[in-house]
UniProtKB/TrEMBL annotation:
<comment type="pathway">
    <text>Amino-acid biosynthesis; L-valine biosynthesis; L-valine from pyruvate: step 4/4.</text>
</comment>
<keyword id="KW-0663">Pyridoxal phosphate</keyword>
<dbReference type="InterPro" id="IPR043131">
    <property type="entry name" value="BCAT-like_N"/>
</dbReference>
<keyword id="KW-0808">Transferase</keyword>
<dbReference type="InterPro" id="IPR043132">
    <property type="entry name" value="BCAT-like_C"/>
</dbReference>
<dbReference type="Pfam" id="PF01063">
    <property type="entry name" value="Aminotran_4"/>
</dbReference>
<dbReference type="InterPro" id="IPR036038">
    <property type="entry name" value="Aminotransferase-like"/>
</dbReference>
<comment type="function">
    <text>Acts on leucine, isoleucine and valine.</text>
</comment>
<keyword id="KW-0100">Branched-chain amino acid biosynthesis</keyword>
<keyword id="KW-0032">Aminotransferase</keyword>
<dbReference type="GO" id="GO:0004084">
    <property type="term" value="F:branched-chain-amino-acid transaminase activity"/>
</dbReference>
<dbReference type="InterPro" id="IPR001544">
    <property type="entry name" value="Aminotrans_IV"/>
</dbReference>
<comment type="pathway">
    <text>Amino-acid biosynthesis; L-leucine biosynthesis; L-leucine from 3-methyl-2-oxobutanoate: step 4/4.</text>
</comment>
<comment type="similarity">
    <text>Belongs to the class-IV pyridoxal-phosphate-dependent aminotransferase family.</text>
</comment>
<dbReference type="InterPro" id="IPR018300">
    <property type="entry name" value="Aminotrans_IV_CS"/>
</dbReference>
<dbReference type="InterPro" id="IPR050571">
    <property type="entry name" value="Class-IV_PLP-Dep_Aminotrnsfr"/>
</dbReference>
<dbReference type="InterPro" id="IPR005785">
    <property type="entry name" value="B_amino_transI"/>
</dbReference>
Amino acid sequence: MIIYLDGRFVPEEEAKVSVFDHGLLYGDGVFEGIRAYNGRVFRLDEHIARLYDSAKAIDLAVPITKEEMAEAIKETLRKNNLRDAYIRPIVTRGVGDLGLDPRKCEKPTVIVIAVSWGAMYGDLYEMGLRAVCVSVRRTPPESMPPNVKSLNYLNNILAKIEANYRGVDEAIFFDTKGYIAEGSGDNLFVVKDGAIITPPTLNNLRGITRAVVLEIAESMGITLLERNLGYFDLYTADEVFVTGTAAEVGPIREIDGRVIGNGKPGPVTRQLMAAFKTITQKEGSPIDG
Ligand code: PMP
């Protein structure tokens, strides 16, 4: 495997980062998760824009331009002969001392990893996922805006651990005010009486897949609502699904033991899954271009 590291393409064995890198010491950095389908990088500009916005929000100056980042991503895919892939660009604060002051870090570390990765949930796209509402709350925007896709994913990992112990596939986060935020690594939607409802993006990451699904739903003439949701909306929904680059569109069939709808992926979710697949196969920024 070939990795992009600070302007060079190196074999995996040589892709080493210092133990004094603040990405490791403090989770001080940002990242993206991007997919390429069929030789095209899906929504590349949007992902790069979000990466640079995340960096800006934590006062981290990415040392390469957006165009150079796009090229680094494509070249990583080309060097690894990948046409369908999951891509992980990372920008850390860089090497500093053991103190947390970022001024001690001279230059950010830039990494791009690309791997072959198929459907994250395997046959659960047919069966539906089981989820629980976890007790850990999504980090409030007053403390750490969920819109910063930072290297500190412990909040999300704690949610995942809770879901794991409770034997289900995904965690659903609430925020500290009692509203639904998102999944551990994806956005959440409910379908009720033909309308699609999803929370506004203050307490969750403004997902790029979320935006694609909203575009698809709009083009299909489905009523869209962005509003706060609570437990009641989840348990009584006709359908619930999550969206994310890794998860794609994932139907949820059970939450906290309550069967959602008829316990199978519902018709609106299925329509969106099919339309999403079509779009990902034909859109995107060509790797060889
Ligand atoms: N929320 C969280 C916490 C995530 O990690 C992700 C994955 N990036 C998402 C939502 C979905 O975002 P996207 O559709 O842009 O991948």
